[in-house]
Specification:
single chain, about 120 residues, alpha+beta, HIT family, subunit A, 4 helices, globular, binds adenosine monophosphate
């Protein structure tokens, strides 16, 4: 699937649409989900143009891949979730019901979460 540079996260990365920013570094931007499904629901997105996890792990450099996962761990820690626990999730493709075609990792926490798949 080709990258659609008009997707909403591309617009957020370009600063055309605002977001409630949590964290940013050279590799990623993280912001609160607009429709939170848990008390803490953060999205972490790589800064490059990657549709899915397969696209990212095929095309991104090792530092970019490490940067994304390091940021996820750091953000969870910064949010105080390490003790209480949290869940990460990345939908990829239609069976997963991925809505936004720019790779994003959800971080859910702040309450005892439901079953793994709902
Ligand atoms: P997914 O179904 O994994 O593609 O998740 C897309 C997520 O993006 C959903 O949880 C939406 O609530 C969230 N979302 C959509 N538009 C925005 C936006 N402008 N700012 C923050 N989160 C958004």
């Amino acid at each position: 699937m080709a990258y659609d540079s008009e997707n909403i996260f591309a617009k957020i990365l370009r600063g055309e649409i605002p977001c409630n920013k949590v964290y940013e570094d050279e590799f990623v931007l993280a912001f609160h989900d607009i429709n939170p499904l848990a008390p803490i629901h953060i999205l972490v997105i790589p800064k490059g143009e990657y549709v899915s996890m397969a696209d990212f792990t095929t095309k991104a450099s090792a530092p970019q891949i490490a940067g994304l996962f390091r940021a996820v761990g750091q953000i969870a820690q910064d949010q105080g979730l390490d003790q209480s626990g949290y869940r990460i999730l990345a939908n990829s493709g239609s069976d997963s019901r991925q809505e936004v075609p720019h790779l994003h990792i959800h971080i859910f926490g702040g309450k005892r979460l439901g079953p793994m798949l709902t």
